[in-house]
Amino acid sequence: MSKYFHSVQLDADRCCGCTNCLKRCPTEAIRVHDGKAKILSERCIDCGECIRICPHHAKKANSTPLEEIRDFAYTVAIPAPALFGQFNNLDSIDIVLTGLKKLGFDDVFEVSRAAELVSEATRKMIKENKFKKPIISSACPAVVRLIKIRFPELCDNVMPLLAPIEVAARVARRRAMEKSGLPSDKIGIFFITPCPAKVTEIHSPNYTAHSEVDGAIAVSKIYPELTHEMDHLKEVEPLGQSGLMGIGWATSGGEAAAMLGDKYLAADGIENVIRVLEELEDEHIRSVDFVELNACSGGCVGGVLNVENPYVAQARIQNLRKFLPVSLNHLEDGELERMLWENELAYDANIFRLDSDISKAMDMMTRMEDIFQDLPHLDCGSCGAPTCRALAEDIVRGRAKETDCIFKLRAKIQNVYDQLKGTIS
Amino acid sequence: MSNAIHLHYEVSGEDFTRAGEASSAVKKRLKSLGYNPDAIRRIAIAMYEAEINMVIHADGGFCDVDIYPDRVEILLSDHGPGIPDVEKAMQEGYSTAPDNVRSLGFGAGMGLPNIKKYSDEMRIETTIGVGTNLYLTVRVKS
Fold first, then answer.
1. Which residue of chain B has the CA closest to A348?
2. CB A275 within 8 A of CB A56
3. Number of structural domains, chain A?
4. Are the beta carbons of B37 and A152 separated by less than 8 Å?
5. Beta carbons of B34 and A363 less than 8 Å apart
6. Domains of chain B
7. What is the pLDDT confidence band of residue A2, given thresholds at 50, 70 and 90?
8. Is A346 inside any structural domain?
9. Which pLDDT score, from 0 to 100, does residue A325 have?
10. Of the residues A56, A235, A314, A373, which has the fewest C-beta atoms closer than 10 A?
């Protein structure tokens, strides 16, 4: 089995084995064993909630160092629109884009430009009525991965269009090849990322064989050098070509608003996202055409690799958008077809099921219920599993034992003590 | 070894924002079993509708769920007022739900018709003033 790449990693030296990340993980992908947190790789969706919550900063996101741009003859930075919300008193995104060029990139291409293309393609597809409704946005990779491992019936509802980052990378690469005359392998496309899920997405894409993005540099990593460059610009190049629609994708509701209709829903924050997916699965949400879901509160401005508070960033984004034209990027002939997925989104049944043989799975579940009834139902996390039910599951899966529960252990020791006392007296 | 999993849930009639707890718990179990996704969906929808009915009309009750490899059998039982005219209640759009419930978007008269639509077998035993038992079977289609 090929190992799935994860951006989210544990720094074992810093981990003290507390239960903060354990309790926060939305897919119950973390266990604490031998005093250290461990991530169950197949369950992790790289949402970054554990990075957000860890008081010891023991969870980190792998991202590409800026130095890697030197490996390519020609490089293009493709910044997420959330980047524009990170700076105080910013009058124009041109300042950020010129700053990126000063850092060593040969060119820039805003992901928000591609977002406008994706919005136009989505509107077209909704109008043509070709897809199962409601259509769920495919822009947030953590959400797409979540659907893939937990919501089999919703896989067909996910919009089969590349996310703006991938569209941006393809357009940027084409342009770079034309401008520089260099072959594709000499050109490096670098995403400036607000979250670990996008880093994972370029290494292990959900729905393409291969990502056109060569590296993902964290906003927080590039921030000090970038602000330094921005403060010392002699001249600002007019590079920005995004409308208010594309920039709006940085915050929750931006993508949905670009549908230009009123039959949409936008939810943000992983717990809310899960609740909406549950309701969609049970067909309780019927009157909407389009569903925008962002794993982070506030949308991409809430990504854990940003530096600014999401709500401050959101206010700045609103300000920046105010005087921009609606949309500056439009689909050319054949472009929509190039944006369609190469692979279908396939449900990964193996992640949560107990066994591929249903009668075996049923036996395991019966045992699991029995074990669970006997546990204290405190969900304290001391055993290293997030809940008593999760411990019961781990026991039947053979990766934990009943005495991992400290209450069970205490009862057992008491028992041994009582017996010994009986023998002596 | 057992060839069925039996689950029992009490459905509270006090707070109908809690309706759906039983169906969502059943859904979670079925996913862990690797159950057929289409069957899971139909079970979750039919059971939720029935739970809502129990809360709106009968002040709650209980449900018993038996999971077999090829089917799920569900009993939803209440001590409510009973259904005076089952045939009428089965008509789409027919509802006796009070206004306060309708104002929340429920009571469109699609409850029983939807339950029938999503299940493979449905049987109602009802006695006025005593209560209603609703039996459902959802089969895994191969």
1. B34
2. no
3. 3
4. yes
5. no
6. 5-139 (3.30.565.10)
7. very low
8. no
9. 92
10. A235
**What dihedral do alpha carbons B86, B88, B91, B92 form, nearest 10°?**
-110
- The predicted model gives A327-355 an average pLDDT of 91
Joined tokens for residue A182: 């260099």
Q: In angstroms, rounded to a whole number, what is the distance separating the alpha carbons of residues A185 and A268?
A: 37
What is the C-alpha end-to-end distance of chain A, expressed in Å?
A: 58
Inter-chain residue contact B34 with A152, CB threshold 8 Å:
no
- The pLDDT of A46-74, averaged and rounded, is 95
A178: which 2 tokens? 């034309």
Same domain, A202 and A331: yes
For an interface test with A, give the residue of B33, B51, B70, B139 to mutate (most A CBs within 10 A). B33
Average pLDDT taken over every residue of chain B = 89
Residue in A278, A353, A362 closest to B24 by CB: A278
From A35, A62, A89, give the residue that closes a domain: A62
User: CB-based contacts of A91: which residues, under 8 Å, 6+ apart?
Assistant: none
pLDDT interval class at A424 (50, 70, 90) = confident
Residue to test with chain A: of B6, B9, B31, most A Cβ within 10 A: B31
What CATH number is given to the structural domain containing A4?
3.30.70.20
pTM for this model (two decimals): 0.92
The parent domain of residue A10 ranges over 1-62
Inter-chain residue contact B41 with A284, CB threshold 8 Å: no
Euclidean distance between the first and the last CA atom of chain B, given in angstroms as a whole number: 25
Picking from A282, A349, A363, the nearest residue to B44 by CB comes out as A282
In this structure, are A303 and A159 located in the same domain? yes
Average pLDDT over residues A103-132: 93
Boundary residue ending a domain (A339, A361, A379)? A339
pLDDT recorded at residue A141: 96
